[in-house]
Write a structure and sequence with these properties.
This protein has about 100 residues and is an all-alpha fold. It has 5 helices and no strands. Helix 1 crosses helix 5, helix 2 runs antiparallel to helix 5 and helix 4 packs antiparallel against helix 5. It is about 70% helix and about 0% strand.
Length: about 100
Amino acid sequence: MSRPGPFVLRGVRRALGTTAARVYLVACALLLGWALVTASDGSMALVVPMFATLPTSLVLLLVLPEGGAVFLLSMVLGALVNALVIGWCARTLRRGNAPDAAA
């Protein structure tokens, strides 16, 4: 019998395990891949995945120092945080008024 992980890690695993969160992460990855392939010097292609990961990516861009790697990091972290929120909302709405049996 395996020991359950800490409460926070179980919550993250449950939130990212929902279909809605996974679909969102795949969509963000596809948008980011498309933007990186089609981006050129004057292209605004990187704005599309940025909009998909708002508001978290914008907050991270304002807090973190400037740079290309930081821009990509803010989009990746923004997508993960937003997927956690989407997964938590999906689980909460699915559960309704019934208590969570796993908690």
